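Following up on my earlier message about T4K. Here are the inputs again, as you asked, copied directly from the submission form:
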Amino acid sequence: MTEERPRRLAILGGRPAFPEPLVVGRPALGDRRALLRAIDRALGRRWLSNSGPAVRALEGRLASHLGVAHVVAVSSGTQALQLAARALDLSGEVILPSFTYVASAHALAWLGLRPVFCDVLPRAHTIDPARVGPLVTARTSAILGVHLWGTPCDTRGLERVAARHSLRLLFDAAHAFGCSHQGRMIGAFGNAETFSFHATKHFTTVEGGAVATDDGDVAARVRAFRRFGIDGRGQVSGPGTNATMSEICAEIGLAGLGRLGIIESGNRRRHQLYATRLAGLRGVRVLAFQENERQNCQFAVLETTQKAALTRDELLAALMADGVAARDYFAPGCHRLPPYRGRRHAALPVTERLSQTVLCLPTGPAVGLHEVRTVCDIIRSALGQADAVRLAVRARAGGTPSTTARGS
Ligand code: T4K
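Thanks, got it. Here's what our run produced:
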């Protein structure tokens, strides 16, 4: 019997395993005909925006899915954050993690609020409640927790800090639609939670987002802000913007709701496969999720440690050469991005380390299990030929030695 020869890594001169890049975040649109029918329904009604029947139906379905009193659909996750922040009357400084997508910080800064960056927990990657207290000043109005990768924040710890300092508690749940925490769906924690339904998300309306809250006043304010400050009586009651979700987006969302269970279980299989195939590899670990909670497993997160034969960036270069468009989310931390860099920040050692060691691998319904296996083979093979890979990466980069730390 002839033994199959292992593929030669593209970084070492082989042919790319994926001539078409295998990306992170390929939209999961499902049955195209069902989608077109949904869009056709909206077109047929000739009611295309301004809280039409599809938006109202979507809000109702989402509220019962999340077990929360109010869901207000808006045009993006960023708008959801901004409208929630205004509805909660946030002012001055807001404490949030630096290790998040820049939208979390920008949404606040765009409103004239000052993001104050806090470090995260080393295993969960969510804001560390023990580090929030020392950042509170007389100007602090709120904490913004981010359920990064769908991993719930330590909500109890944050509730305690918020209560101690009389702060509002808001959650950016952009990654966490369909995830549960302490037996409840994410969406009902804090004063309000915000979701993103962007094309790359677990649940998508192409562009879109929502504010979820049990507070009727907050929901009413978000509704008014979403549409020029027009209140429930149809009167302009104050300032507002236009952050309306279109009927077409809402129909796409309604069409996708029924498939979420299938997407979730497929993602779980892909996640388990990554975890199994990469288990025992020195210096890399796949971020685990809590087994007894709902998890959308939208992200497959790999972390390199100091024991890994390659740095995260070297491994990423090897993957990219083979057509695996993994992402170094979220590097650098927000505190190192304009306009926040150059300001004084607390020490953020965990954020600094994670932004050099975390890698998001392709997953989602567009990624087959055989593709996951190939990605794992590339990682295994690259680590097994670390010296040659490192030399090849340096040669590609023009001989510059990699300066990236290997983590701890
Ligand atoms: N808070 C957090 C914690 C967030 O992560 C985000 C957004 C927000 C708030 C704000 O929510 P939104 O206002 O966006 O609703 C992408 C998304 O654009 C962004 O929504 C998301 N987080 C972030 C984590 O990922 P980029 O800069 O990585 O986008 P891009 O264009 O590089 O696409 C990502 C991957 O998806 C690529 O591998 C290509 C693939 N892709 C992308 C699009 C748009 C596709 O295959 N098809 C597509 O249509 O930000």
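One observation from looking it over: The chain has two domains: 32-257, 260-397. Hope that helps, and feel free to reply on this thread.
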